[in-house]
Design brief:
Layout lengths: L2 H7 L4 E9 L5 E7 L3 H9 L7 E10 L3 H11 L11 E3 L2 H13 L14 H15 L1
Antiparallel strand pairs: 1-2, 1-3, 2-4
């Protein structure tokens, strides 16, 4: 069972990790979380000065008590793609970001009591290699 499936069954407040894109910013994604619907969050972001609306590329339901830890871990692991330290925007292809986030959120042990959110070294190394090859 994936970790996010288990978290959904625990009865805690559900929140969402989201991956948004914007046609005005090619190959730039926004990774964050919200306690509202992801659609509401995308609309909010458009009203704060973006030239075109944000599009939901993907989202994941996670437990409200774990969402900040998950988001911080994702931002840390994606830091080499971060555009600005105080913003949640990353210069990475949306498909790569989705792959990475899905694996980060989904890598858990089979023991529900020991459920952990982990980024596998294999996926991190794969992204590093792809980044190096992109720069060539």
């Amino acid at each position: 069972m994936l970790c996010n499936e288990w978290l959904n069954k625990k009865g805690t407040q559900m929140t969402y990790i989201y991956l948004l894109i914007n046609e005005s910013m090619p190959n730039v994604v926004k990774v964050g979380y919200t306690n509202k619907s992801v659609k509401e969050r995308a609309v909010e972001l458009y009203s704060t000065g973006a030239p075109t609306p944000f599009i939901i590329f993907a989202h994941w339901k996670v437990s409200g008590d774990k969402v900040q830890t998950i988001e911080a871990g994702l931002h840390r692991e994606l830091s080499r793609y971060r555009i600005s330290n105080n913003r949640e925007f990353f210069k990475i292809e949306p498909k790569k970001a989705k792959f990475f986030i899905s694996n980060f959120i989904g890598n858990c042990s089979n023991n529900e009591e020991d459920c952990q959110i982990l980024a596998t070294q294999k996926n991190i190394e794969k992204l590093k290699k792809e980044k190096i090859e992109e720069e060539k």
